[in-house]
């Protein structure tokens, strides 16, 4: 019998935790969270694990996408538009490659941010604490705003619940019906080359569905047509929050982190002896780990042994984020070592976090060409190693932002300031996201 409990992580060093100024206030909030309802249920996590096991077998592909950091300034429109672009990408991937797509958002809980520096320099040595996501402090660059406030944990929980509710309504209540494939396109996308390509594909899908209807197939009763399964995920960074939302299933005695379906640990917190990995070892959710350039083949194999000792397919996803110029050099030895160890893994490519740079105009950005190049390098490395390139992890928004440069209707460096709205990392806009989906579909088809 395992001795793991949701607080076991407290015995290990926990990196990236905020400096909460008032421990009693934090403890009161965590106790309150522990008494609030779960956001997701154990049966859903098991169902997602089964879907991810299909990815392990090379029979499906995962699309995990959403904001770098969700904002407290949210609306039904922004959730709907994000969902639209993810549904569009998924339908492009499925239609063009004939591979089923597991759809997952960085949504309904993706608030906390790990930071490279604990402080931000406002100039002239005027240091304030870094922004750590709206679940911790405010993005506005003032010393008061950057004080960690535990009330924000509660606000994040309630926003996650509201977001989850809307996501469930959209995906189960008719909006995600394949017969609405035209409605997911946004006006600012429709006129672009990739929008027109999407429209042609959507017209084909319409025709096929009408044909099926004419053949007597009841599309209202067909689960894959009138609704979709859409899963939530976020980085398990603030371990007190995750602990409070971890619940024991009465019928099995197993622990589930009910803050989201899938939790991952980031590249900065994936240490084998660290608190984040210690926490994830005990929850039954499917889990993921980001692997950046400093990850070694031995690290990857050790993470498999630690997080998935029973070698259960679908339990563990490894997310490579090496950067476009380094993926061909760094990923192959890791793929080979994990394959040789016999551990079943879902291999996913995050082509965003290894390709961030500061543009000449001074904004943090990413170039669409680097993003696509990293995905191409990832596919090539997987093919050589004989493993299935199982998925894509991206930061995007449904809004018409100018945060990443490039794409077929290119955003220029000089345009970055026009609609640079992210609270953290630069996201692909809906046009760039569709562009990427067509590019990835081509790789999957080959
Ligand atoms: C992220 O996913 O936003 C992130 C910080 O990623 P990584 O841990 O890969 O740097
Ligand atoms: Co990010």
Question: What would you say this structure looks like, in words?
Answer:
Helix 3 (76-97) runs parallel beside helix 13 (430-445), helix 11 (327-341) runs parallel beside helix 12 and helix 12 runs parallel beside helix 13 (430-445). The longest helix has 22 residues, at 76-97. The mean pLDDT is 96. This protein starts with 22 loop residues before the first helix and ends with a helix. It has 13 helices and 14 strands. With 446 residues, the protein is of the alpha/beta class. The strands form 4 sheets. The protein has an 8-stranded parallel β-barrel, surrounded by 6 helices. Strands 3-4 form a two-stranded antiparallel sheet. It has a two-stranded antiparallel ribbon with strand order 6-7. The protein binds phosphoenolpyruvate (PEP) and cobalt (II) ion.
Q: Please give the radius of gyration in angstroms.
A: 21 Å
Q: Give the ligands present.
A: phosphoenolpyruvate, cobalt (II) ion
**What is the spatial order of strands in the main beta sheet?**
1-2-5-8-9-10-11-14
Fraction of residues in H or I helices: 25-40%
Shape, please?
globular
List segments where confidence is low: pLDDT < 50 over at least 5 consecutive residues: none
Distance between the termini: 46 Å
Q: Indicate the proportion of strand residues.
A: 5-15%
How many strand units? 14
Series of secondary-structure elements, N-terminal to C-terminal? HHEHEEEHHHHEHEEEHEHEHEEEHEH
